[in-house]
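Service request form, structural biology core

Requester: graduate student, group of Dr. S.
Request type: structure prediction, single chain
Budget code: on file
Notes: please return the result as structure tokens.

Sequence provided:
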Amino acid sequence: MTKYSAWLHYFQHNSWSLPEFPWSNDAQLSPADRDLLALSLPQFQLGENSEGSGLLRRAARLDVPSLHSAMQLFIREEQRHAAVLGRFLDQEQIPRLREHWVDALFRRLRSLAGFELMTIILTCAECIAVPYYTAVLEATPNPLLRAIAARILRDEAFHLEFQAENAALCSSLRSDAFRLLTCLAHLFLLAAACVGVYCLYRQLFQRVSMSPLRFASLAFGAYRPILDRLARRPCADALPRLAW
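Core staff response, request fulfilled:
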């Protein structure tokens, strides 16, 4: 079984559906929690909801066995996150967003990127999700939202391992110097995202006493699998050259 065949098997068996969560109108957010989370939750719900057509096109061009199929299921899992968050927003009567400048910026960057840079951008977003959903877990006793946040955190841990596989794929024909530059690009983008997201939603993070240092520590800790894969020399495979 190839590495991507194993990921295809994982995504096929990591199925879940909206009814599995403890939906109940009896467990609504408190007014204070609703006002607090209404500032950020719609933006994260929007960010999870992408068709991923550009990513799929770029993955198909690489002609790596099972990569395209695994990527399809990865995107479908992200869309399930968006669906469950959207239903929660609707239940709490928190308006959904149709657009947000942060989401628009990330989508614009992805549209200009090749598969390698797309992987960097996706990895950054998923690292940021770790401290964010950790703060959501700590901010509210609402059982439904806690179940949703815990499930997303569990999935994101595996998604980051999947992105580590993609990073290794991209770096397999790169020189040591280029792989170092890739690491630096990852770290720079992640640091900028940490500053931006913390400043945007600092009320939530301050509510749970999550300092900027702890936020960054969780985000960069989530990045560790990717750094480990990029830091060591991967085995070269018969893969095409990758365009940024």
